[in-house]
Amino acid sequence: MSTLLLITSAPTSVMAWHAFGLAQALHNMREEFRVFFYQDGVQVANDLQWFPDDQRNLKQEWQKLGIRLPVCVSAALARGITDASNAQRHSLQHHNLAHGFELVGLGELADAVQDCSRLIQF
Fold first, then answer.
1. Looking at residue 89, which CATH number applies to its domain?
2. Is 0.85 topped by the overall pTM?
């Protein structure tokens, strides 16, 4: 059974942490799953967010998982998150997409929805 985790909650939300916890459990059990960051969920890919040393950093936790981390390009750009290619295309001076995350179109979400056995939105 393949699972798609659609993460739409901001990284400050407990739901975003629940999504990570499920992803970590699925990964540890070697279950087939994919993730897709959409709406406010894309904020986890902002490399310019700072966290105090005594707080867990959700971005770093996702990066440590070592899986593919697709992020909706439109939702990311609307929230000030971009990679070098889109920064140049849209005449932005800087890029801030965190390492390991990848900007993709909604077609990838459509494909993932079609291919999964179960979809869980956080």
1. 3.40.1260.10
2. yes
